């Protein structure tokens, strides 16, 4: 458990008027890092360049199967919650009813999709109830404190008017929670085939920028059903939709009412256009030869294109341990609004090379463009990791679950009211935390890299406190920011080091190897407000361009022994 010391001003009720008291705030423990599991599935997409006849046949089949899927979904929602036995009996009964108007395999795919939609709708309903309860608890806690007051760490509402407005909102939230709990009790889930967001656009086409014909085309495209589940023991991995890798043709089994449109035996229709997977086509072919492959045919009315998606299960390779990955440098990533802050951290916990900022502007873009830019940013991350010799990419295990659950009722260190609160909620909703994590894990696994997830607690705070100043002293073409400092803390946490720099390590003015640690300055005689001695800041050492050479000093040289003048003259002079 960590503790953070701080000062707070005592009020009149403590008896210490105007005094200052020191308290210790307990920080939550930091969870251990872990290696994210590799994805257990794969998916590849290719474009279908259909002729007019092919497009007409696919539209007819998709609309017919889509109407059957809508009818089956309505029947399943009317049954409410069922146990495992009840779900199996209900699906068998509904499948027999659908087989007569399609085929056994089409009916199996429709009923499986229906069960998935009902299960997901139940999860969303329970998540909505949890969010309403969290908001009600937050409002009740703040209403228990008088307006303008504070009890422990809970602060009351600023004014009486705001307090009254929150009391009214509390009643509204309780009514909504009661309605959701009634639906949970009876099992009444609501599912919209085509999506609720697209349905809501119908009420205000001008704001959506669509005409009625455009909306109708998107609505019909979203309600088409052309999905065939794979079968392991069948030829080419699927009996309903088949793709031949060698010959490049695609066949579809037509429903029984549309058998007259077939151009192949056994009510099959073969497309006239060649079909080829330019991306991961070899993997699709290998899977079709040995296992099951699921195919989805979809129509994008905005681009005017038809697509074929192939998906299959893969056996995940065993993930390397943390000890193995810590033997190499790691690339730490700090996800922010509009960009990614990256920095390579060596095995000993020090940042290496210049910091890198990868742009990631996603605001106001359609879903397809957001996904494309997200993939482009992840590709840049993978390329940077390979360039720096890293075996793993480190990210925060961040999802903003509490902020999204409590909404505008969230109160604490984050803004919750007014313009700042709206900006913060918009920023949180715009961060693609879940999609970024899923895309990164999948693309990194394809590139032979691992992903380490760490606890996001205090990374930005401790990065600014312990690393931002020293990193800005470094001579680098890219200046370090607070997000880069947080990335350093993220990398150190994945390597098993603490966020704080080691005591006694000097700054970044060192050019060659050794320098002595700076001695601690003597304590100053001045004192703080509470009477404690004030500590003087550490004084930097005297600047030297290079370190002193490590060599032995030669001994002192002795003086030369020279004789003095002769004492007596014992020789004759040459000249008299």
Uncertain parts: 1-24, 508-519, 568-576
Give the rounded overall mean pLDDT.
Answer: 82
N-end to C-end Cα span: 106 Å
**How would you describe the shape?**
globular
Work out the number of β strands.
Answer: 17
Helix content: 25-40%
- Protein structure class: alpha+beta
* Strand order in the largest sheet: 3-17-16-13-14-15
Structure write-up:
This protein is of the alpha+beta class and 576 residues long. 40% of the residues lie in helices and 16% in strands. The chain contains 16 helices and 17 strands. The strands form five sheets. Strands 3-17-16-13-14-15 form a six-stranded mixed β-sheet, sandwiched between helices. A four-stranded antiparallel β-sheet has the order 4-12-11-7. Strands 8-9-10 form a three-stranded antiparallel β-sheet, with no helix packed on it.
Question: Which helices and strands occur, and which strands form pairs?
Answer:
Blueprint: E1 2-9, E2 20-27, E3 34-35, E4 41-48, H1 52-79, H2 84-99, H3 104-143, E5 150-151, E6 154-155, H4 160-186, H5 196-201, H6 205-208, H7 212-222, E7 227-228, E8 241-243, E9 250-253, E10 268-270, H8 281-290, E11 294-300, E12 305-313, H9 322-325, E13 330-336, E14 338-345, E15 351-360, H10 367-387, E16 392-396, H11 401-406, H12 418-430, H13 433-446, E17 450-454, H14 459-466, H15 468-473, H16 482-495
Parallel strand pairs: 13-16, 16-17
Antiparallel strand pairs: 1-2, 3-17, 4-12, 5-6, 7-11, 8-9, 9-10, 11-12, 13-14, 14-15
Helix pairs in contact: 1-3, 2-3, 3-4, 10-13, 14-16
